[in-house]
Amino acid sequence: MSNEEVKGEGLSMLVKKALTEDLEVGALDVRVNTENGIIHLDGIVDVLADKEEAERIASRVRGVKGVENRLAVAQDGIRKDKELSKIITAKFNEESDLLNIGVIVKSGRVFLKGKIKKVAQEQKAMQLTRQIIGVKDIVSNLKIISKEDSIIGNEVSRVLNSDQRVDSAAITIEVEDGKAILTGSVLNIEIKELVNHLLAEIEGLQEINNELVTHKGGVGGDTALEAMIRRELGQTDGVSPVQVKVYVVGGSIFLDGEVDSPEQHETAIKVVRDIIRNVKGVNGLNDGIKVTGKKASKSEK
């Protein structure tokens, strides 16, 4: 067996392990093969949602260059188009924000039509539809009621600035014809997905083009985490990044500098802990801050 075949077999095992751990059902019926870093998925799953989730899980395994998804949706006890249409419509009628969405089914292929206010409604409708047995594919013809680009841009900035998990200073926003284009960097894939989730709730936004680069540790991730901590310190009363120095190396946070009181020290530590509580991959917090003011205790001097 060649080295490439060994590497391919190892990558297939990693993907299979990820599918078994993360895919709720149907992972045992999925066959995984690798060729030149491309994962090939074969087999049968119960619903369309499982097919799409399997591809998402496989694509996130380190070393995977691409995924060819040949999974088929089971046809056992297949439902007629009229029955599928009734089931989907009934699901939508249970959700107040999906009442105006129309459903047409042709040979198991579902077409969604109507006017909505935001991307999140489309995502919700498609997610509900994916879970229904018998659905082979979904085509969205939903139209989002538009707003001016300037209004959308201001709302995108407001939403990102208001969530402390997102370092908005590292993100560049451009809105054109209702489409938001994001460039820059975030700490990890979870934050990148969080950004998509936050923007999907903005009314009038037609499309999200998330081109953010993610950093799993290393210099890029360290720099982004440093910037986030310094920004939060700068926005916190009683402490500033001038007094407290922040360094991040290999995911470990080092704090240095001098503050005037134990209260300032506690405030700085709390700011940092609140941030890393929502960030994966942080290896530890090393507190080297010195309290030099008159209120310092003997142990802190």
Automatic annotation (TrEMBL):
BON domain sequence ranges: 7-75, 80-146, 148-216, 221-293
Pfam families: BON
PROSITE patterns: BON
UniProt xrefs under InterPro entries: BON_dom, Lipoprotein_DolP, Transpt-assoc_nodulatn_dom_bac
Domain of life: Bacteria
Gene3D superfamilies on file: 3.30.1340.30
Classification via PANTHER family: BON DOMAIN-CONTAINING PROTEIN (PTHR34606:SF15)
Protein name, as recorded: Osmotically-inducible protein OsmY, contains BON domain
